Amino acid sequence: MEAWADPYGIISDSDRGNNIMSGRIAAKESAPVGPSTWRASCCAPTHHARARGDGAAHRPVHGLLVHGHGQHGRVLPREPGDTRYSDGDLLTIDATDGRDSGQRTLLAYSEDVAVEVDVVLVEGVHFDFVLETPDPSPMVDDGTTVRLPVTLRSTGNRGTTVDFAVTSQEWQSALLDPTNVTVWQATVTAMGTVELVLEVVVPPSAKGSTVENVSVRATGQDDRQP
User: Fold this and answer.
1) Tens digits of per-residue pLDDT, 123-178?
2) CA-to-CA distance for 63 and 73, rounded, in angstroms?
3) Are strands 114-120 and 36-43 parallel, antiparallel or unpaired?
4) Is 198 exposed, middle or buried (0-12, 13-18, 19+ CB in 10 A)?
5) Does residue 62 contact residue 78 with C-beta atoms inside 8 Å?
6) 101 — phi, psi (to 5°)?
7) How far is it, in rounded angstroms, from Cα 69 to Cα 63?
8) Which of 17, 55, 58, 128 has the highest count of CB atoms within 10 angstroms of its CB?
9) For position 65, what pLDDT does the model report?
10) CB under 8 Å to 23, separation ≥6 — which residues?
11) Are residues 114 and 140 in the same domain?
12) Do 162 and 95 belong together in one domain?
């Protein structure tokens, strides 16, 4: 290695012989990686992560699984005397939580003892929604028609169309829109709401101790997850 001062002679100097400095730098020989501990810290909104590594010859390094917002680590290499992984092997950490994902890439070196990596996820496409009603277990009178307000609420970042299925044991029931028309599906915008009514007809013969289970099943058309 050589270092020059004023190599083009721009600065006046009586002795230019001392403007050059040279030296030798020894290149480190490739050494096995490990034992070292690798930890991935997954930042919200992730719930689990996995890590993989590829070396110069695309060699797999290891898998790393993280639950919640905590940490989990493994020693690399896994077995004593394992020399498959060398200086400069590439470690790619892929973190996923459903449609959320993130990635970090770094190099592994034999000097590594404990390495901690933060993986921040990028929000993916979500079609999540919930059904809400203020009183899921109302007290009713025989021979009456009960109308329960039901709200379809989007909690995702994309709108979606939801299919409904209403089931009951004996009493007549139906899901209606605000104009009293039976609905089998509804489209809700991202973070929006759709107001509906669950109508249940209580027969005059219903006894005071009768319990009727009425179920409304909502299934999103985009991911088919109820």
Assistant:
1) 778 888 999 999 888 888 999 999 999 999 999 888 999 999 999 999 999 999 99
2) 9
3) parallel
4) buried
5) yes
6) -155, 155
7) 18
8) 55
9) 39
10) 1
11) no
12) no
pTM above 0.70, yes or no: no
Q: Has residue 152 been placed in a domain?
A: yes
**Cα distance between residue 48 and residue 132, in whole Å:** 28
Paired residues of 105 in beta bridges: 92
What is the Cα–Cα distance from 89 to 137, expressed in whole angstroms? 60
d(CA 71, CA 39) in angstroms, rounded, equals 6
**Residue 215: inside a domain:** yes
Distances (CA, A) of 155 to 160, 192, 207: 11, 8, 39
Output the six-digit token pair for 150: 């039901």
What CATH number should be reported for the domain holding residue 206? 2.60.40.10
103's CB contacts (< 8 A; 6+ apart) are: 92, 93, 94, 95, 119
| 30 touches 86 (CB < 8 A) | yes
Residues 99/126, Cβ–Cβ less than 8 Å: yes
**Pairing outcome for strands 48-54 and 114-120:** unpaired
Cα 110 to Cα 88: distance, rounded to the nearest angstrom: 9
From start to end of 62-159, where are the E strands? Answer: 66-67, 71-76, 89-97, 100-108, 114-120, 129-132, 145-154
- Cα 179 to chain centroid, rounded: 39
The mean pLDDT of the chain is 75
Q: Which domain holds residue 100?
A: 36-120
